């Protein structure tokens, strides 16, 4: 294991810490308390079998785009395989995909899919991932569930799957920023400083902060609940960086000639985000 990676065996830790994150507020009416179950729910086959899952949030864009909520399942697969190898835990793999193929995944390919309409389902997972390239809005019920999920200990990663040209439309990012401001308050969305531990916990990303893969760089933004970072919002399409395992498109050596960073940095950022989420 390289000096960049902390020598940690998290198999038992993940199962314990992940459940603790999801059920952190049980005593105070938090995740799972309404049903009287653990935060992982009564019928938790996969959640008992695996240490970590990364559910995609299913939602609808307001505009016609190529990259919807289910874009590029291969990126999820690459990240989770690295996470599993570095942290030495058991992760449910994303199925039948490789890098950027297929472009759009079926629900059954992902290791889990959730809908913000279903609060009971949300309670099963301490970590959610949400991406697309288009603008979107959520109805009142979904906003309430999002607020409840975060307040009760959940973590949400939101990453803009950049639409069109490099300088064209950060539609998902802007919609997400507005959503978070509506749900948590106008001053709730804050810049995450490069000194924050999320950039240094497993891989030390140095002074880089959020890697730039493609799109418009707004820096890492987030919502804090107390001292805990509960939402991580990115405009730089780190998910597309996850897909590029051969370094063909992104970074200074990529064919697209965009971005200062590529697959390595994007994967390292993803691992750091997961580790922060499940340990806080």
Features:
single chain; 280 residues; alpha/beta; Rossmann fold; five-stranded mixed β-sheet; two-stranded parallel ribbon; disordered N terminus
Explain what this protein looks like in three dimensions.
With 280 residues, the chain is α/β, with parallel strands linked by helices. It has a single domain (11-278), classed as Rossmann fold, CATH 3.40.50.12140. Helices cover 30% and strands 12% of the residues. It has helices spanning 11-22, 45-49, 73-87, 119-122, 140-151, 171-184, 238-243, 263-278, and strands at residues 56-58, 113-115, 127-132, 155-160, 189-191, 221-225, 228-234. Strand 1 (56-58), helix 3 and strand 2 (113-115) form a beta-alpha-beta unit. The longest helix has 16 residues, at 263-278. The chain is globular, with a radius of gyration of 17 Å. The model is unreliable at 1-43 (pLDDT under 50).
Write the topology of this structure.
Blueprint: H1 11-22, H2 45-49, E1 56-58, H3 73-87, E2 113-115, H4 119-122, E3 127-132, H5 140-151, E4 155-160, H6 171-184, E5 189-191, E6 221-225, E7 228-234, H7 238-243, H8 263-278
Parallel strand pairs: 1-2, 3-4, 4-7
Antiparallel strand pairs: 5-6, 6-7
Helix pairs in contact: 3-8
Structural class: alpha/beta
Helix content: 25-40%
Q: What is the CATH T-level topology?
A: Rossmann fold
Please outline the major beta sheet. 5 strands, mixed
Whole-number count of domains: 1
CATH homologous superfamily name?
Domain of unknown function DUF4159
Shape call: globular
Please state the second-level CATH architecture: 3-Layer(aba) Sandwich
Strand content: 5-15%
The spatial strand order of the largest sheet comes to: 3-4-7-6-5
Low-confidence stretches: 1-43
Q: What Rg is obtained from the alpha carbons, in whole angstroms? A: 17 Å
Order of helices and strands: HHEHEHEHEHEEEHH
SS element count, helices: 8
Mean pLDDT level? 84
Question: Count the strands?
Answer: 7
CATH class category: Alpha Beta
- First-to-last CA distance: 24 Å
């Amino acid at each position: 294991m390289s000096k960049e990676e902390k020598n940690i065996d998290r198999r038992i830790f993940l199962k314990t810490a992940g459940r603790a994150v999801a059920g952190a507020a049980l005593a105070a009416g938090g995740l799972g308390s309404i049903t009287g179950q653990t935060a992982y729910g009564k019928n938790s086959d996969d959640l008992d079998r695996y240490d970590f899952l990364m559910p995609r949030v299913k939602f609808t864009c307001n505009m016609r785009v190529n990259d919807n909520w289910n874009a590029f399942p291969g990126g999820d697969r690459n990240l989770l395989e690295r996470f599993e190898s570095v942290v030495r835990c058991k992760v449910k793999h994303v199925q039948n995909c490789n890098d950027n193929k297929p472009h759009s995944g079926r629900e059954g390919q992902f290791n889990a899919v959730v809908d913000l309409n279903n609060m009971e389902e949300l309670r099963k997972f301490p970590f959610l991932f949400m991406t697309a390239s288009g603008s979107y809005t959520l109805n009142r019920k979904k906003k309430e569930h999002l607020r409840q999920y975060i307040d009760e200990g959940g973590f949400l990663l939101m990453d803009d799957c950049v639409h069109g040209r490099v300088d064209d439309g950060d539609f998902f990012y802007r919609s997400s920023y507005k959503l978070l401001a509506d749900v948590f308050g106008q001053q709730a969305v804050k810049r995450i400083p490069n000194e924050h531990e999320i950039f240094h916990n497993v891989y030390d990303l140095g002074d880089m902060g959020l890697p730039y893969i493609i799109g418009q760089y707004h820096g890492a933004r987030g919502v804090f609940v107390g001292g805990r970072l509960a939402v991580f919002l990115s405009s730089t399409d780190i998910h597309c960086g996850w897909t590029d395992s051969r370094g063909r498109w992104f970074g200074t050596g990529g064919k697209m000639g965009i971005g200062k960073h590529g697959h390595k940095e994007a994967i390292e950022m993803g691992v750091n985000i997961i580790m922060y989420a499940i340990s806080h």
